[in-house]
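Suppose you are handed only two things: the residues of a chain and a line of SMILES describing pyridoxal-5'-phosphate. What would the bound structure be? This form records exactly that question and the answer produced for it, so the two can be stored side by side and reused later without any lookup.

QUESTION INPUTS
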Amino acid sequence: MSRTPLPFDPSGIQLDRRQGLSRQLYQALRERILGGQLGSLVRLPATRDLAEALGVSRNTVVRAYDQLYAEGYLQGRIGDGTYVAELATKARSKASHPPVKPSAPAQSNLLQRLQTEYLPPPRLDAPRAFRVGIPAFDLFPFETWARLQANFWRHPPMASLGYADAAGDPQLRELIAAYLRNSRGLVCDPGQVIITSGAQQAISLCAQMLVNVGDGVAVENPGYRAAGKAFALAGAQLHGVAVDEEGFDTRQLAGLKDCRLAYVTPSHQYPTGVTLSLPRRLQLLEWAAREQGWIVEDDYDGEYRYRGTPLSPLAALDQHGRVLYVGTFSKIAFPGLRLGYLVVPPTLTEAFSQVRALGVRHSEIGTQAVMAEFIAAGHFQRHIRRMRRAAQARRDALLNGWPAAVPGCQPLPVVDAGLHLSVRVASRARELELVQKAAAVGVELNALSDYWLPDSPGSADDRAGLVLGFAGVSEDHIAKALTALKKAWG
Ligand SMILES: Cc1ncc(COP(=O)(O)O)c(C=O)c1O
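ANSWER OUTPUT
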């Protein structure tokens, strides 16, 4: 019996009999249509003929054709067989030409900005003298924390296991609002408190929400580089503002016409340790009200004040809803907890919650609930008092044990607040020498030069100094580190 020749050669179609045959046939035909081997309006063999040619059942071919019909690759003419659809030409022309590769890899703006905004890697070993940014980990009541954790997870409220409020645990937000009222004189509604993953996320949310690409952002110089980098990553043009004995020099804002936001650490400037004076606080608030600018107030270590009463935070003085207040549990508990908060003006609460919801939904429930219980049961207040006493004793160990005269290094300052101090050194070369000699005997000193923006005014020597954290290790460790330093420095 003579056969009708098939309109296309199916011999290249290889089907694996261990797998779904009609699916494979559908894919093989679709590939040929998209690749152009089966052109528009080419007639396909009758199902019986193709089944015979491939050695499969007719049903297999019918199912493959049906799928191709359903997706628009084939069209039929009644009584006249099956044809490749004309529609397929468009798909084919797209599919048969590989996409043109750009000569350079396409990069998002964010990726490009990131190239200059990397943070140095964190130190991953145990705390040492004189690491900055860490409190007394050794005094944290881990037993109490473990008990509260166990209590929570033994019988977690079923209602709390689903998706939760993006702004954070309501009880924790209430307790933070009460804490801020009592300890800082900052009166806010719990609804204005947004729980974040540490101060850093609070700062970067502010950058994301309040800064447009190209906006000016004023940052303290020297200052907290991780904050500056978060604003730069959002596309801000950073303006370094000098810090003098009254703190952030608000007079410089007048010359920064494009400035939309100022990031400041008023209670204890990082890293110089200066407190922002009341006149400067009022000037800064006036600037924000006049220019419709924003102030991000980072109160990262406000719990540590050893003398005098702290000045009211900017957020407590703000009459125009221009201040976003950032707080963290990193310096009272430990940074690994990643728990912080923002207090935002009422007009922004919904927007900040939304952005958190779209980013991470919300923070993990256990840590929030346990922190709420830790505060409610009085452990937090007790721990603050313990930490303040310890930091003060460790500060004294450093101040009293520091070598009497270190050539090229000014005497250590009076330290009334915080967990670190900074001191000027005569030149960049001397700063490097002191840091390197200390490192050689296992003592960590930080170069003040690293806290300045690139292209800061003045010479490298004007920016030299040392930054010393004193709270991370015991008085004993501090004494040993000082003995080692004295030897290393001769
Ligand atoms: C000025 C300043 N802000 C914020 C933080 C910390 O924030 P986080 O809560 O993200 O650990 C630090 C840590 O050293 C800091 O120095």
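WHAT STANDS OUT: The mean pLDDT is 92. Residues 379-401 form the longest helix (23 residues).
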